[in-house]
Amino acid sequence: MDLLLTIDSRAIGRAAAQAAVAAALLLTPIAVGTSAQAAPITPAPTAPAPVTPPPVTAPPVTPPPVTTPPVTPPAPTPRPCFPGDLTCNGGRTPDGYGPDGRDQAGYDRWGYDSFGRDRNGFDRDGFDQSGYDRSGHDRWGYDRWGYDSGGFNRAGFDRWGYGRDGFTQQGCARDGHDRPDADHAFCEQLRKRPSTGSAG
């Protein structure tokens, strides 16, 4: 009997639950209907449909070509030279002089070549290849025209033919006081000629 009561109580509970659900379903339209009559239903604003942009495809990225800079080998450093080492730097010492004591241009440490002349062409005494110094005089003091710094040539006469004593070879004097043995006719002609700088 207990079994029947248990089955019946389950069936009763199930039937009561089904009746409650059916009543709720029946009453819902009435409640919705009365609330619909009380206030009009305004439709909710609709949001615009979202616009989806087309998918963006990035262009393929190609890396720039890698260029390697040209490799320049470092300049060779000359090895240190020692005195007497003729194989170092072409046989030249670090200061640029070879075993003969001359640089690549052929000048020694004092600036003279193998002929004894400096870079300007003057020898150790100061004379050029023609035998004249920088002032234009030779070793005996005469210039290229044969006159010394006093204006006299090797024979002792100046450019007008007068000697250091003031007389020409013919005995003529500048001031007219000729020697007694002078060629007086020549002396008069000499004084009449314009001074050209030649001895006549």
Key features?
disordered N terminus, 2 helices, mainly alpha, signal, 200 residues, 0% strand
Contiguous helical run count: 2
Distance from first to last alpha carbon: 187 Å
Cα radius of gyration in angstroms: 67 Å
Mean pLDDT: 77
What is the structural class? mainly alpha
- Percent of residues in β-strands: under 5%
Total number of strands: 0
* SSE pattern, N- to C-terminal: HH
Specify the biggest β-sheet. Answer: none
Shape: rod-shaped
Q: Please bin the fraction of helical residues.
A: 10-25%
Low-confidence sequence ranges: 1-5
Structure commentary:
- Helix content is 23%, strand content 0%.
- It is an all-alpha fold and 200 residues long.
- Among the domains are: 1-33; 148-200, no CATH class.
- The radius of gyration is 67 Å and the shape is rod-shaped.
- The termini are far apart.
List the helices and strands and how they pair.
Layout: H1 2-38, H2 184-192
Region (Disordered): 43-104
Signal peptide: 1-38
Keywords: Signal
Question: What's the short story on this structure?
Answer:
This protein is mainly α and 200 residues long.
